[in-house]
Amino acid sequence: MREIEQLYHNNFGIAFYWKKENETITDKIQLVFKETGFYFTVQELNLFCDLIEDSMIENACCEACELKNSCNKFLLKTPCASIDLAVSVKELKSIKDLVEGSLFRIELDEYVYGVGLN
């Protein structure tokens, strides 16, 4: 099995960098959740974050619905133009946490090991 460097995880999924010959490949992030894997650049991950936020705003009308956390009626667009995901509100929130947590870790690492170095 190939080695990875974990960026972030929650109960729904994981985000990580692949390693090759003990070198971490940081140009793309592997995002795995709901038996699905995406291999995104940071720019694509930021776009996915925006698409998730758009979906949350669009589906805010379901706040009073009893089935809002289990209904699989929402389509979540992805940075891959030909792929949309059917997700529940609960899954959408978990994906949002996974993506935002990953982006936070990437930005934190860039600061700590970049401009923050003395």
Question: Mind explaining what this structure looks like?
Answer:
The chain has 2 helices and 6 strands, in the order ββββαββα. The chain is of the alpha+beta class and 118 residues long. The protein has one domain (4-115). It has a 4-stranded antiparallel sheet with strand order 1-2-3-4. Strands 5-6 form a two-stranded antiparallel ribbon. α1 (42-58) packs antiparallel against α2. The longest helix is centred in the last third of the chain and has 27 residues, at 89-115. The radius of gyration is 16 Å and the shape is elongated.
> Per the principal axes of the C-alpha atoms, what is the gross shape?
elongated
For the largest beta sheet, what order do the strands appear in spatially?
Answer: 1-2-3-4
Briefly note the structural class of the backbone. Answer: alpha+beta
Percent of residues in β-strands: 25-35%
N/C terminus separation: 37 Å
Secondary structure layout:
Layout: E1 4-9, E2 13-20, E3 23-33, E4 36-40, H1 42-58, E5 74-77, E6 84-87, H2 89-115
Antiparallel strand pairs: 1-2, 2-3, 3-4, 5-6
Helix pairs in contact: 1-2
